[in-house]
Amino acid sequence: MNRLNKRSPLAFLLLFAIGPFLAGCTSSAVGIGAMSGLAAYEERPLKVIARDAKIALQVRTALLKKSENHFLQIGIEVFEGRVLLTGAVDSEQTRADAVGLAWKTNNVKAVLNEIMIGPNSISDAAKDAYITAQLTSRITLDKKIMAVNYSIETVASTVYLIGIAQNKLELEKVLGHARALGYVRKIISHVRIKKHTS
């Protein structure tokens, strides 16, 4: 999720805040079968997925209560209780606030602070969104990658990955797709390798 460093009307913020849940309701009503199919490939149990979604909602709500800029500038991904914070903010205090709020949230096991200090223009945000969309498309179309187990964030042309890889080979394929994209300057992976039981 890419954040624009600009002020917006309160109505936009409220719509932004509830948008994912409106979309989620639509998906649930239309494609329960599709969700069941995805669940078969998702490494996290359903209760973990639900807990991660709740953590993400609570952190976003806390950021919004703190300030509009905190909410707009910081991206959040949660995987197995690990909170990945990304974005570009204007001060160390804003970054510290976000990390502190994340740690105060129930069931958080780790906070991965990848928030940058510095500006992020509209053109930069558009480029980041393009990179994320392209990488998501490529790993989804690659039949040797279980894309449902990865989350992607891009900030200032740096790609951040979090999730679960089936093995090192799969992770290398994901990294290869990222390296092949134009504009990508750096790739930071917080993906863990699945532990296979014998």
Task: Provide structural commentary.
The longest helix has 21 residues, at 10-30. 51% of the residues lie in helices and 22% in strands. Residues 2-37 have low confidence and may be disordered. α5 links the parallel β2 and β3 (110-117). It has one domain (1-198). It starts with 9 loop residues before the first helix and ends in a 5-residue tail after the last strand. It is of the alpha/beta class and 198 residues long. The strands form two sheets. It has a three-stranded mixed beta sheet with strand order 1-2-3. Strands 4-5-6 form a three-stranded mixed beta sheet. The radius of gyration is 17 Å and the shape is globular. α3 (46-66) packs across α5 (92-103) and α6 crosses α7 (168-179).
Major beta sheet, strand line-up? 1-2-3
Tally of individual domains:
1
Rg of Cα set: 17 Å
SSE-based structural type: alpha/beta
**DSSP strand (E) fraction?**
15-25%
Mean pLDDT: 84
Structure annotation, total helices: 7
Which parts are unreliable, with pLDDT below 50 for 5 consecutive residues or more? 2-37
Order of helices and strands: HHHHEEHEHEEHE
Helix content: 40-55%
Q: Describe the sheet with the most strands.
A: 3 strands, mixed
Total strands: 6
Oligomeric state of shown chains = single chain
What is the molecular shape? globular
What is the straight-line distance between the termini?
37 Å
Outline of this structure?
The protein is α/β, with parallel strands linked by helices. The protein has one domain.
Question: In terms of topology, how is this protein built?
Answer:
Blueprint: H1 10-30, H2 32-39, H3 46-66, H4 68-73, E1 74-79, E2 82-89, H5 92-103, E3 110-117, H6 122-141, E4 150-155, E5 158-165, H7 168-179, E6 186-193
